[in-house]
Amino acid sequence: MASLLNKVIQFANSPKGQQVVRQATSKAQEFAKDPKNRAKIEDVRRRLQGGRGTGSGPVR
Q1: pTM for the structure as a whole
Q2: CA-CA distance, 21 to 19, in Å (whole number)?
Q3: C-beta of residue 21 within 8 angstroms of C-beta of residue 12
Q4: CB distance 18 to 12 below 8 Å
Q5: Closest by alpha carbon to 29, among 41, 19, 17, 18?
Q6: Nearest 10 degrees: CA dihedral of 37, 41, 47, 48?
Q7: How far apart, in whole angstroms, are the C-alpha atoms of residue 39 and residue 14?
Q8: pLDDT digit string, tens, across residues 6-33
């Protein structure tokens, strides 16, 4: 398993890997600009945080 991780790290540090990362980042930013997708992202974030939202009071 460690050798697979090393290969991934090696690829990410290569010029081709850096290009792939830049492309993925660009696509993710475009995806997040869409209001519908932004709402989906926020919904998932709320669920992962336990559905508490921004509540500042104690949990009962």
Answers
A1: 0.54
A2: 5
A3: yes
A4: yes
A5: 41
A6: 150
A7: 35
A8: 999 999 999 999 999 999 999 999 998 9
Write the CA distances from 20 to 8, 15, 30, 31, integer angstroms.
12, 9, 15, 16
CA–CA separation, 8 and 14 (whole Å): 10
Around 31, how many Cα atoms within 13 Å sit in the side-chain half-sphere? 8
Both ends of the chain: CA-CA distance in Å? 43
Q: Where are the domains of the chain?
A: 21-47
22, 25, 26, 29: CA torsion to nearest 10: -160
Place of tokens 């090696």: 10
State the amino acid at position 19 in one-letter form: Q
What does the pLDDT read at residue 59?
A: 54
